[in-house]
Amino acid sequence: MQRSLRLKRELERFARYPTEGISCYPKSDNLENFVATIIGPHGSPYNGCIFQLEINISERYPFEPPRITFQTPIYHPNIDNKGRICMDLLNMPPKGSWKPTVSLKNLLDAVQCLLGNPNPADPLMADIAQEYIYNKQEFERKAKKYAEKAKNNLS
């Protein structure tokens, strides 16, 4: 009950105060599964590409973070081939920084920010992180190629 009230309020706030390039909506009435879209940020190799994400909300939300996965393939040091995301906000303390005050909007803002600012110091894909650190041009070339492929698959 508390979880669904909270999620309804979050969705209302999302609608009232949208973030450019981010949308989020429930897959069904049960408010357990959401779909989000994020447009790649300006100045990043993902600029203009639309990424679809799946969000699964546990019964314990907001006391534990939702599981967010990319459904659109992406070449990124903090996102693996299965779409899992390595980001502090998505993990419980002591390894992560999740707090019940964090909202879906905060999380999706952080994911969009991560697209433009990868964290190679805490990678999920070590080889891509090394490329990002030591050969950023090649990283950007491959990331753009993946993004273009994702764009074409949406068409």
Question: What report would you give on this structure?
Answer:
- By secondary structure, the protein is of the alpha+beta class.
- It has 4 helices and 4 strands, in the order αββββααα.
- The chain has a 4-stranded antiparallel β-sheet.
- A hairpin with a 6-residue loop joins β1 and β2.
- The longest helix has 19 residues.
- The N and C termini lie far apart (40 Å).
Short key terms for the protein model shown above:
single chain, 155 residues, alpha+beta, 4-stranded antiparallel sheet, 4 helices, 4 strands, 36% helix, 15% strand
**Overall form:** globular
Strand content: 5-15%
The percentage helix is 25-40%
Structural class assignment = alpha+beta
Total beta strand runs: 4
Which stretches are poorly predicted, pLDDT < 50 over at least 5 residues?
A: none
Distance between the first and last residues' Cα = 40 Å
Main β-sheet: number of strands, strand sense, barrel status? 4 strands, antiparallel
Order of helices and strands: HEEEEHHH
Biggest β-sheet: strands ordered side by side in the sheet: 1-2-3-4
What is the CA-based Rg, rounded? Answer: 16 Å
Gist of the model:
With 155 residues, the chain is an alpha+beta fold. 36% of the residues lie in helices and 15% in strands. It has helices spanning 2-16, 104-116, 126-134, 136-154, and strands at 22-26, 33-39, 50-56, 67-70.
